[in-house]
Amino acid sequence: MKINLGREYKERLMAGDRMFSLMMGPGNDPEKTVSIAKEFGVDSIYLDNEHSLLGKETIYKYIRACRENELPILMRAEEKTSNFRSYLDSGINAMMLPRVNTVVEAAYGVRESYFPPIGHRGAGLGMSPYLLDGQKPAEMHLLQMLQYVNENTMLFPMTESLEGLSNLPRILELKGVTGTLVGAHDLTIDIAFKTGRIDPDSFRDDLVNSEVVQETLKKIAGICKAAGKVCGCGGLSPKGYAEMAKIGYQVFALGYVTNGNVESLRPVVEETIALMK
Q1: What pLDDT, on a 0 to 100 scale, did the predictor assign at position 198?
Q2: Distance in angstroms between the alpha carbons of the first and the last residue of the chain
């Protein structure tokens, strides 16, 4: 089993690499889906535990499949205040916290995701073979294990509202926060209703591509760049992702896999990657 899979992913992000994920919903065969997704050229698998029904046993199968295929595995938590430690202890590499609006909410994520000296995560060491990537706890010093887990863990409080945007500079200052992932559709809805700039005849894609939303996405990229942190997004077209890459976005959730439809997303992944080369 490859060690430091999460740390390697994080280092690539810090070096400026662009990383592509497919989001996993219900109704898929984890082993088959992960294997096919890797063929497309994705760099990680992204589990959606906020908007879909993924059972814990299925999630564990995804973790196992991702380790076998040497792909980091990311997860969007059910809630920003939920107990997601069991997922991290089972081998999830990165946690995306939805609808984070304040520094206090982001700090909760840091506390629960990392061991001291960064956070105060409870010790589940040795309960899953994937947390330490196959290394034996009995052969590692305690501090060595804590450091290993911290180095292979990532945390992305999601920016999905104008309030979250206003607090983003301070959120990114927190040690342990790797960056932010923008929920483009949630952000669009928040902007549309809070600014009153919503046409009842507008389609969702029209609003996401509107000037006010695009300017907000650029602002988020600028804040992340100034902080030396990573920004990512989902919910756009291949051309939309290519435009985001030009302004500094690095992590892209390219499509939603449900009921075994992974092959149907091959054109989306391949087009997006091709547009960024």
Answers
A1: 65
A2: 31
As given in the structure block, the two tokens for residue 108 are 């909760």
Dihedral class, residue 72 (left if φ above 0, else alpha if ψ from -120 to 50, else beta): beta
| Residue 189 amino acid letter | I
How many Cβ atoms from other residues are within 10 Å of residue 206's Cβ? 12
CA dist., res. 181 & res. 191, Å (int): 17
DSSP letter string over 196-246?
T---TT--HHHHHTSHHHHHHHHHHHHHHHHHT-EEEEES--HHHHHHHHH
Residue ranges making up the domain that contains 260: 5-276
Residues 224-234 pLDDT 10s: 999 999 999 99
Q: What is the CATH number of the domain that holds 107?
A: 3.20.20.60
CB 98 within 8 A of CB 160: yes
Classify 268 as helix, strand or coil: helix
| CA 130/CA 152 separation, integer angstroms | 11
**pLDDT bucket at 80, cuts 50 / 70 / 90:** confident
Overall number of domains in the chain = 1
Q: How many CB atoms lie within 10 A of CB 83?
A: 11
Is 125 buried (19+), middle (13-18) or exposed (0-12) by CB count in 10 A? middle
Decide if pLDDT at 195 tops 90.
Answer: no
pTM of the model: 0.94
Question: What is the chain's alpha carbon radius of gyration, rounded to the nearest angstrom?
Answer: 18
Q: How many CA atoms lie within 13 A of 103 on its CB side?
A: 9
Q: Which amino acid is at 276?
A: M
Q: What count of residues does the chain have?
A: 277
Region 237-241 average pLDDT = 92
pLDDT at 252 over 90: yes
Spatial separation of the C-alpha atoms in residues 245 and 13, rounded to whole Å: 13
Of 225, 241, 188, 166, nearest to 14 by C-alpha is: 225
